[in-house]
Amino acid sequence: MASNIGMMDSAYFVGRNEILTWINNCLQLNLSRIEEAASGAVQCQMIDMTYPGSVPMHKVNFDAKTEYDMIQNYKVLQDVFNKLKIEKHIEVNRLVKGRTLDNLEFLQWLKRYCDSVNGGIMNENYNPVERRCKGVKGGVMMKGCQKAAKSLQTHNIHSPGSCDPVEPRSKPGKNGVTSRAHSSGEIQALSKEITELKLSVDLLEKERDFYFAKLRDIEIFCQMPELEELPMAAAIKLILYAADAKESALAEAQEYIYQSKNTTNVEDENEE
Predict the structure, then answer these.
(1) What is the distance between the alpha carbons of residues 265 and 272, in angstroms, rounded to a whole number?
(2) What is the value of pTM for the model shown?
């Protein structure tokens, strides 16, 4: 199944905000950036949530900071993938660098996979905080375990195992009647509009990152020693490095190719 998720699949157009909300709600964490999941610990627990008890959580280090510690987490994850026959190779060397795009793509794939298994609904008996505490080493509770436990004791916002955000209850007014700033219809309309705007922004960010990566590949390709001195490579770099975005550098690049061709022809005639 995992091998059927191609790069143009809708899974890879899920925005970073949605991914973060999914992680925070399911695991009762408070991540604010995709890079915070680069250690591999979150991915391990997501699989443990999907297949309860499948991951040896005592081997997962939620406080991993060095690449060495992160790699150990991904080794655990790859071993679990192999045991569950999940056909997914983990690009560990890229993920541990903490680059947003690499980690976002892996989390997008992970969300799609988990949703395909359980429909986005977690086992109600699964307690993410308790499972995270299995990773305690030397009798000291991990930071992630401490924060989550404190948050649960203080606020009790999410029910154990719920992947969907729970709407806060409104406080009753002086007369015992629930106070509302707007009618429920207006709130629903505004919420829908906000959701659509967030989705639009996420799609634009994804598209921007996609084309930027392509341009970067072209730039690296043109800088190869074998190609760097070729007129075509130089013309492409004229377009890539054009300073003024208002004017196209295409005409200048075409002129460069034309002049280079004429120069080559003249040199060939002189040699003859």
Answers:
(1) 11
(2) 0.54
Paired tokens of 208: 């921007």
Q: Tokens 């690449």: give the residue.
A: 67
Give the C-alpha separation, 102 to 94, whole Å. Answer: 7
Q: What is the DSSP letter of 265?
A: H
Say if CB 17 and CB 202 are below 8 A apart: yes
Cα–Cα distance for residue pair 81/50, rounded to 1 Å: 12
Query: Is 143:63 a contact under the CB 8 Å cutoff?
Result: yes
Q: Tokens 């707007």 map to which residue? A: 182
- Token pair 């377009």: residue: 239
In which element (H, E) is residue 121 found?
A: none
Measured distance CA(42)–CA(19) in Å, rounded: 12
| pLDDT tens readout for residues 110-142 | 999 998 887 767 677 889 999 998 764 533 345
Other C-beta atoms within 10 Å of 110: how many?
Answer: 23
| Among candidate residues 79, 69, 82, the one with its CA nearest the CA of residue 39 | 69
Neighbour count for residue 67 (Cβ, 10 Å): 16
